[in-house]
């Protein structure tokens, strides 16, 4: 692996039982870059993120994260590696029995012996960074979806990770919050040199933010390039996805018998 | 005909295999829980919090049920013993029934319904909302941090709740037999004192409840941890906890009683 790559994947296959989810994935994510993995829902993007985080094991192929071969990694080494990783889950995944403050302080309490006063200051700084110091005493159930996502981001960056993974960070957010989250990702990247991997299907916001894009369709990387290359791409799948067209290689209808047959009663057995 | 018989046999075999693999999975999960139990004792405040949720919050149902069970035993016991002219032994009947059988079994069944289901639902919902995955990604083992304290909180609570159930049950029997019916108070307590053996009756009863606690908490934590991450999955797991725990308590009671009587 070249020294400046945070994640390198070659010939990766992943299967759930007999069902192939990812096929022949090759990827290289340089350290300090912001990379997006795009594709339709269910194409295997989140699975790829879970493989990088070590929550799943590749069936075949090579996956190296921060110099560690994830197929051969021991449980202790994986836990050590995860201390340098952060992940923002799609719906935040805040601990519902803890306050906002305790959620953000959670990792510091678990992994460090820092004095309480320092944990308090660091936690408030993280909350300040996402603009939510004022909700420190609230419970997650009292927050809106966007606020919960920002608190989850503050929690994910609590220990200043080297690799940050974002699972659909823009889904369900209004344009203002989308901009806020995008700015936070950019700031984190420039301030800490964090490598960011964003799994998303929000094309326009992501293309403004990232350095490089991988397009995944049905478990295969179908296109890759810089945002400008992606915007200019003539590949039908990428074109349809980037410009949100209904017609194209991705069908609008899930495979089914014809409507005419259904209405004339000739397809009762093929419904 | 042969085909039908074959299908029946296949279905019975499949059910038996499911049952055996289910019991095996609970045991494997129990071993994992024990292996990662260090956190539960090194940071005992986490376990104390769970003792509060499983134990203290179950107190009302345990105490009220214990009182009523004791009262009913008092009434039934008096009615039966009066026929033989030994109504003063009602205290012995109440105390032995409670310490040997009713105390451990009924409090365990109540505990499975009240605390076991809550443990399963909580862990299952944490899984469904990706809180367990988030914990894993923070390099924190959810079995050590989430399962362990809940398991030990329940196991520690169970014998204490049983002791309280027995205590209030005896009080219930006293209220009915002595205060309402008029059995002699001295005879009630002295006969109980003479007939109840601390090691054979009280200790064995509490030992039973400890084993029941292990079984209920293993099943409850396993069901929560392995629940499908959907609303339907969590509700199914909660139901399975109550049904499996109740059956396990009754089956274990038979085995333990057989060994204890032999001893």
Give a brief outline of the structure.
The complex is a heterodimer of chains A (271) and B (263). Chain A is α/β, with parallel strands linked by helices and 271 residues long.
Number of domains of chain B: 1
Helix content of chain B: over 70%
**Largest sheet entry of chain B:** none
- What CATH calls the topology of the largest domain in chain A is Rossmann fold
Q: Which descriptors apply to this entry?
A:
heterodimer; A: 271 residues; alpha/beta; Rossmann fold; six-stranded mixed beta sheet; 35% helix; globular; B: 263 residues; mainly alpha; 10 helices
Descriptive overview:
The complex is a heterodimer of chains A (271) and B (263). Chain A is α/β, with parallel strands linked by helices and 271 residues long. Chain A has helices at residues 45-52, 75-82, 100-111, 116-129, 145-156, 175-192, 203-209, 227-231, 236-242, 259-263; strands spanning 5-16, 19-30, 34-38, 60-65, 68-69, 85-88, 163-167, 195-200, 212-217, 220-225. Chain A folds into two domains: 5-84 and 162-233, P-loop containing nucleotide triphosphate hydrolases (Rossmann fold); 99-160, no CATH class. Chain A is built from ten helices and ten strands. In chain A, the strands form two sheets. In chain A, strands 6-7-8-3-9-10 form a six-stranded mixed beta sheet, with helices on both faces. A four-stranded antiparallel beta sheet of chain A has the order 2-1-4-5, with helices on one face. Chain A starts with a strand and ends in an 8-residue tail after the last helix. The model of chain A has no long low-confidence stretch (mean pLDDT 85). Helices cover 88% and strands 0% of the residues of chain B. Chain B has one domain (49-262). Chain B is globular. With 263 residues, chain B is mostly helical. Chain A binds chain B through residues 53, 55, 79-83, 85-87, 89-91, 93-96, 106-107, 110-111, and chain B through 125-126, 129-131, 133-134, 136-141, 145.
């Amino acid at each position: 692996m070249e020294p400046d790559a945070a994640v390198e994947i070659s010939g990766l296959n992943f299967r759930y039982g007999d069902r192939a989810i990812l096929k022949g994935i090759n990827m290289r994510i340089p350290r300090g870059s912001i990379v997006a993995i795009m594709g339709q829902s269910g194409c295997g993007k989140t699975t790829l993120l879970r493989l990088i985080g070590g929550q799943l094991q590749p069936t075949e192929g090579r996956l190296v994260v921060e110099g560690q071969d994830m197929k051969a990694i021991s449980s202790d080494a994986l836990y050590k590696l995860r201390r340098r990783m952060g992940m923002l889950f799609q719906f935040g995944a805040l601990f519902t029995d803890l306050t906002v403050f305790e959620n953000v302080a959670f990792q510091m309490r678990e992994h460090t012996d820092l004095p309480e006063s320092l944990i308090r200051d660091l936690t408030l700084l993280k909350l300040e960074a996402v603009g939510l110091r004022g909700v420190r005493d609230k419970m997650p159930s009292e927050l809106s979806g966007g606020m919960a996502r920002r608190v989850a981001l503050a929690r994910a960056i609590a220990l200043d990770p080297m690799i940050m993974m974002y699972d659909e960070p823009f889904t369900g957010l209004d344009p203002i919050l989308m901009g806020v989250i995008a700015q936070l990702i950019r700031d984190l990247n420039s301030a800490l040199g964090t490598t960011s991997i964003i799994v998303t299907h929000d094309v326009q916001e992501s293309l403004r933010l990232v350095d490089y894009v991988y397009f995944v369709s049905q478990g295969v990387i179908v296109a890759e390039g810089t945002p400008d290359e992606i915007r200019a791409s003539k590949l039908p799948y990428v074109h349809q996805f980037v410009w949100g067209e209904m017609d194209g290689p991705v069908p609008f209808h899930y495979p089914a018998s014809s409507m005419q047959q259904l209405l004339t009663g000739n397809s009762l057995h093929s419904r | 005909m042969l085909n039908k018989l074959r299908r029946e046999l296949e279905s019975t075999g499949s059910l038996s295999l499911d049952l055996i693999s289910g019991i095996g999975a609970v045991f494997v999960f129990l071993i994992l829980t024990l292996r990662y139990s260090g956190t539960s004792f090194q940071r005992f405040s986490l376990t104390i919090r769970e003792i509060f949720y499983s134990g203290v919050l179950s107190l009302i149902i345990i105490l009220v049920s214990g009182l009523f069970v004791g009262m009913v035993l008092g009434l039934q016991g008096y009615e039966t013993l009066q026929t033989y002219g030994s109504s003063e032994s009602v205290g012995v009947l109440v105390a032995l029934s409670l310490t040997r059988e009713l105390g451990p079994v009924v409090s365990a069944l109540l505990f499975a319904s009240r605390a076991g289901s809550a443990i399963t639902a909580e862990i299952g919902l944490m899984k469904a909302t990706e809180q367990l995955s988030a914990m894993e990604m923070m390099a924190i083992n959810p079995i050590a941090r989430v399962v362990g304290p809940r398991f030990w909180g329940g196991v520690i609570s169970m014998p204490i709740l049983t002791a309280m159930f027995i205590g209030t049950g005896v009080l219930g029997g006293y209220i009915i037999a002595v205060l309402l019916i008029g059995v002699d108070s001295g005879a009630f307590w002295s006969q109980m004192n003479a007939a109840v053996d601390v090691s054979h009756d009280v200790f064995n009863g509490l030992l039973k409840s400890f084993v029941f606690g292990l079984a209920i908490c293993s099943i409850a934590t396993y069901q929560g941890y392995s629940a499908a991450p959907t609303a339907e999955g969590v509700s199914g797991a909660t139901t399975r906890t109550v049904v499996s725990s109740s059956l396990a308590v009754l089956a274990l009671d038979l085995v333990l009683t057989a060994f204890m009587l032999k001893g």
